[in-house]
Design a protein that fits this description.
It is built from 12 helices and 15 strands. The chain is an alpha/beta fold. The protein folds into 2 domains: 155 residues, Aspartate Aminotransferase, domain 1, CATH 3.90.1150; 248 residues, Type I PLP-dependent aspartate aminotransferase-like (Major domain) (Aspartate Aminotransferase, domain 2, 3-Layer(aba) Sandwich). It has a 7-stranded mixed beta sheet with strand order 4-10-9-8-7-5-6, sandwiched between helices. The protein starts with a helix and ends with a helix. The chain binds pyridoxal-5'-phosphate (PLP). Pyridoxal-5'-phosphate binds next to α4.
Length: 412
């Protein structure tokens, strides 16, 4: 590992991002397990890309078979691609029936922003203060508006960040203030772009009916609701889409990460008139998007989710995992535990009960050494993120809880 890591840093640069203080060199994955170059096994509770399990045989067979038959760029008609697009669109709320495919969440979010500007004639975007939606110059303007990374950055006149809901502060009030501010500046609201379950924000709970209120306000202001489903979509929440979990119907939904189970694939779904306006104004195309291999991977993901009953399983196992964490009772450093289906966020606190990003980072590193891979989220980086593959069973969750209990005990 030492030598490969040195070469990695030489060729990609010292600052190229890697997880963990002691980075991992993984060589194989199977189901919920990953294997490193030393033959050590890790329970994957980070996941989200190979969402139906590592090396899922149905995904492997579908992709291999299609690759061995035909793989071309996106500007030919192909039955597999059309079949997949129709099946995917049918999983969405009614008016969302027309698609644009891309390869990454970043690209798809930028397509959605462009659609919203073209449809509304407005230029302003509203997002959360702690959002992450991608790296490029347009969507990157929405990231971390109120967080640590924004300090010293020029304020973007077309973007407003809304504080996260916290029990006493309602999200909808922040959205109303942002709409007023964009209107007063004469910019107008093109849309609210947000993760429909506030995943990167650490899963702060939205009140019942609050997102429907947000949608009503945004529509009244002439804007569109854009649901970023890059983390929330494909059964993660126990529903197909996070917007169903959070109780609203978006005008545009953006999909990515789990969509191709590791084959780069993303998409934007909207009403036909929204997509037509975008197509005719931009003549957008993307060489690697909408190819037969992507569609074969995407179809296999939907097949596995449906055939293996994963919508119900993520609900059950997510609840089991969250309840198990709440019941550990090992340390008062573990604060509130929240879950949206099989996506769990647990606050890590310092001795005074304040968010402890540094402590949470130490826990994530200790978990990696104990054989469990988890991550971090939230505005202070203090929310432990547990997001296993959708195929995670209750027995896998019990194993995770046993290991994590020991990690928490030694971290306190
Ligand atoms: C909510 C959300 N949207 C968009 C993106 C960007 O996706 P990608 O890295 O595929 O460009 C991410 C990536 O982490 C994300 O979490």
């Amino acid at each position: 590992m030492g030598e490969t890591l040195d070469r990695h840093r030489r060729i990609f640069g010292e600052r190229a991002p890697l997880f963990y203080d002691e980075p991992l060199e993984l060589i194989r994955g199977e189901g919920v397990w990953l294997l490193d170059a030393h033959g050590r096994r890790y329970l994957d509770a980070y996941n989200n890309v190979p969402c139906v399990g590592h090396a899922n045989p149905r995904v492997v067979a579908a992709v291999s078979e299609q690759m061995a038959t035909l793989q071309v760029h996106s500007r030919y008609v192909h039955g597999v691609v059309v079949d997949y697009a129709e099946r995917l669109a049918a999983l969405h709320a009614d008016p969302l029936s027309s698609l644009v495919f891309a390869c990454s969440g970043t690209e798809a979010d930028e397509i959605a922003m462009s659609m919203a500007r073209l449809t509304t004639g407005n230029r302003g975007f509203i997002t959360t203060e702690a959002a992450y939606h991608g790296n490029n110059s347009d969507v990157g303007r929405l990231n971390d508006i109120g967080g640590r990374a924004s300090v010293g950055k020029p304020v973007d006149p077309e973007v407003r960040g809304v504080p996260l809901p916290d029990g006493s502060r309602r999200f909808v009030e922040g959205v109303a203030a942002a709409i007023r501010s964009l209107d007063e500046a004469g910019i107008g609201v093109a849309g609210v772009l947000m993760c429909s379950i506030l995943a990167n924000e650490g899963l702060p709970p939205l009140a019942d009916g609050e997102m429907a209120e947000v949608a009503e306000l945004v529509h009244a202001a002439g804007g569109l609701m854009i649901a970023d489903e890059v983390q929330a979509g494909f059964a993660r929440s126990g529903r197909w889409w996070g917007y169903e979990f959070s109780g609203f119907e978006p005008d545009i939904a953006v999909m990515g990460k789990p969509m191709g189970a590791g084959v780069p694939f993303s998409g934007v779904v909207a009403a036909p008139d929204v997509v037509d306006r975008f197509r005719s104004s931009t003549r957008y195309f993307n060489t690697f998007a909408a190819t037969p291999v992507q569609a074969a991977a995407g179809m296999a993901v939907i097949d596995v989710i449906e055939d293996e009953g994963l919508l119900a399983q993520t609900t059950q196992v997510g609840r089991h995992l969250a309840d198990g964490l709440r019941g550990l009772g090992i340390t008062d450093r573990l604060g509130e535990v929240r879950n949206v289906g099989l996506f769990v966020g647990a606050d890590w606190l310092d001795a005074d009960g304040a968010p402890d990003g540094q402590g949470a980072r130490a826990v994530v590193n200790a978990a990696r050494h104990a054989g469990v891979l988890i991550g971090l989220d939230g505005p202070h980086g203090h929310v432990l993120k547990l997001r296993p593959p959708l195929v995670f069973s209750a027995a896998d969750a019990d194993q995770l809880l046993e290991i994590i209990a020991a990690v928490f005990a030694s971290a306190t």
